[in-house]
Design a protein that fits this description.
binds adenosine-5'-triphosphate; 9 helices; 36% helix; 240 residues; single chain; alpha/beta
């Protein structure tokens, strides 16, 4: 579905990501794992096209572009929750574009939004202002917007943040189901255990890609040490 080749991203003199090569496939639930500041969000943002002119390349499979196929869920805390819109409005942005109503919603758009709000369990909250939601409810609303968009590639930056254990289970189940239906799902997470349980493809990152493969291939003491120590050791590529 999507590959990045020899991707290097600098912020000024700081190198956030160096020579990263990885592929994300349709039907796979992938987790991108690493410590704070490892370059995980940078990898996602590059794939969405939010960072201009990275060196290396981001390649979508034929017929797809970031614009046409990506549904991106940014980190919750990077969004302005004081904006005067309702749960319904946010989910509808998945259909009509961001703000300013690029086009008027059709009956089919409304039906898709109803389904997405029901799937994520926030349909009853549809008239509520987004500023009046709990952290877990906000995360569900972001997922509803993502589902409403119907993208082939779902990119989620720390979707488990601020979410209780029962809700985490539901959200992981929902994302697993999206992958089973043939979408490529890529989630940034700090939660090694959740990633091992739900995902079939893990990418360990610490400025470089440390390891890339199935959970069994990737979760070795050496890889974990290399990822979560600050020394950026090693660079192994397990074949998935
Ligand atoms: N806009 C920016 N300007 C300058 N430096 C940045 C910018 N965005 C990120 N960085 C730096 O790049 C590095 C990678 O950041 P990134 O947000 O990709 O890490 P992360 O793995 O997502 O971290 P976290 O788990 O804390 O969210 C960090 O050292 C960060 O401080």
């Amino acid at each position: 579905m999507l590959g990045v080749d020899h991707l290097t991203v600098h912020y000024g003199s700081h190198t956030a990501l160096e020579d990263a090569t990885v592929r994300f496939e349709a039907g796979q639930f992938s987790a991108v794992i690493g410590p704070n500041g490892a370059g995980k969000s940078t990898l996602l943002k590059t794939m969405v096209g939010l960072l201009p002119d990275p060196s290396g390349s981001v390649r979508f499979d034929a017929g797809h572009t970031a614009q046409s196929c990506v549904s991106y869920v940014p980190q919750q805390q990077t969004l302005d929750w004081g904006f005067p819109v309702t749960v319904w409005d946010v989910a509808m942005m998945g259909r009509t574009g961001r703000l300013g109503w690029l086009r008027w919603p059709s009956k089919a758009d409304r039906a898709r939004v109803v389904a997405a709000l029901k799937e994520t369990g926030v349909y009853e909250l549809r008239g509520r202002h987004i500023g009046a939601l709990s952290g877990g409810q906000r995360q569900r609303v972001l997922l509803a917007r993502m589902l409403a968009r119907d993208g082939h590639l779902l990119l989620l930056d720390e979707p488990l943040t601020g979410v209780d254990a029962a809700t985490q289970e539901q959200l992981m189940g929902l994302l697993r189901e999206q992958a089973n239906r043939g979408r490529a799902v890529v989630m940034v997470t700090h939660d090694l255990e959740q990633a091992r349980r739900w995902c079939d493809h893990l990418v360990l990152v610490n400025r470089r890609i440390i390891a890339d493969g199935t959970p069994d291939e990737v979760y070795t003491p050496r890889n974990i040490e290399a990822t979560f120590s600050s020394s950026h050791l090693g660079h192994t590529h397990a074949e998935a």
